[in-house]
């Protein structure tokens, strides 16, 4: 079997990551396993291998229009709290690569139809040789500490009462640290220093790589960026609002600072 591009005839059984319009097909709230003929679905428009699990192939099948029962199509977030974390990681990969396939059907250099190569996750133009790879957008997360408080904010995308640490995309020509300092000052008017790397997490909404930093408050009063941050404030570790789940990097960073405060007491 080719590692990446393939046809249904090449496959006996597999784990199937079926994606359409940013949704994942989860008929039993799990990634389906078996032969394609068992599922009663039509042939997908695009098919490729994205990995393996327990020596079984993990295949991505992409559709433009949703099939089957509407409630079977869910966000990849549905797997975020799965007891086996690898399912969300594979789902994140599937969602990101599905978007890449859908948005790179034609060559950006000459306009010819692109095709998926068999030896790597890439699209190749047979006319001019232009090759493209899945896009990754680096994004920084910043958990800011001031005395015995954590700075948390609610963006205009979050429901009332739900807060997280600050986040923003890295701009061209920036280091990660420069992006972290800039985003904090832009979003809440606060200046920070002493950045320490916390970790990273792929995030499929739609194709981000989250990279976290802890930082110390230096100066400034909170002034929320219009149209971006609805509210922000300093929260004591035992008085936190609703925060992201522990499966997310932001949730892990907030809980780490909670533990650090507890140790210092």
Explain what you see:
The chain has helices at residues 86-103, 176-188, 249-264, and strands at 14-20, 23-25, 33-34, 46-53, 56-63, 73-74, 115-116, 123-124, 131-132, 137-146, 149-155, 166-169, 191-203, 208-219, 229-235. The chain is α+β, with helices and mostly antiparallel strands and 265 residues long. The chain has two domains: 8-103, Nucleoside Triphosphate Pyrophosphohydrolase (Alpha-Beta Complex); 137-264, Alpha-Beta Complex (Nucleoside Triphosphate Pyrophosphohydrolase). The strands form three sheets. Strands 1, 2, 3, 4, 5 and 6 form a six-stranded mixed beta sheet that branches. Strand 4 and strand 5 (56-63) form a beta hairpin. The chain is globular, with a radius of gyration of 21 Å. The model has no long low-confidence stretch (mean pLDDT 90).
Q: How would you sum up this structure in a few lines?
A:
The protein has helices spanning 86-103, 176-188, 249-264, and strands at residues 14-20, 23-25, 33-34, 46-53, 56-63, 73-74, 115-116, 123-124, 131-132, 137-146, 149-155, 166-169, 191-203, 208-219, 229-235. By secondary structure, it is an alpha+beta fold.
């Amino acid at each position: 079997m080719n590692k990446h591009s393939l046809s249904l005839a090449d496959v006996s059984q597999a784990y199937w990551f079926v994606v359409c319009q940013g949704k994942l097909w989860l008929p039993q709230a799990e990634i389906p396993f078996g032969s394609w003929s068992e599922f009663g679905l039509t042939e997908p428009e695009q098919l490729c291998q994205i990995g393996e699990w327990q020596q079984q192939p993990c295949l991505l099948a992409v559709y433009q229009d949703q099939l089957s029962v509407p409630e079977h199509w869910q966000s990849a977030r549905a797997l975020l709290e799965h007891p086996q974390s690898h399912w969300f990681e594979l789902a994140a990969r599937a969602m990101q690569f599905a978007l890449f396939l859908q948005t790179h059907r034609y060559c950006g250099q000459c306009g010819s139809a692109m095709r998926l190569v068999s030896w790597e996750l890439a699209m190749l133009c047979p006319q001019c040789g232009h090759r493209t790879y899945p896009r990754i957008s680096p994004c920084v997360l910043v958990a800011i500490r001031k005395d015995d408080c954590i700075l948390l904010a609610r963006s205009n995308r979050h429901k009332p009462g739900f807060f997280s640490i600050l986040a923003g995309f890295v701009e061209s020509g920036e280091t990660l640290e420069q992006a972290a300092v800039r985003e904090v000052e832009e979003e809440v008017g606060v200046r920070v220093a002493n950045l320490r790397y916390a970790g990273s997490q792929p995030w499929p909404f739609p194709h981000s790589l989250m990279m976290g930093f802890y930082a110390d408050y230096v100066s400034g009063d909170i002034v929320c960026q219009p149209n971006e941050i609805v509210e922000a404030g300093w929260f004591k570790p035992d008085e936190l609002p609703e925060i992201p789940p522990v499966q997310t990097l932001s949730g892990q960073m907030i809980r780490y600072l909670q533990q650090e405060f507890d140790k210092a007491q």
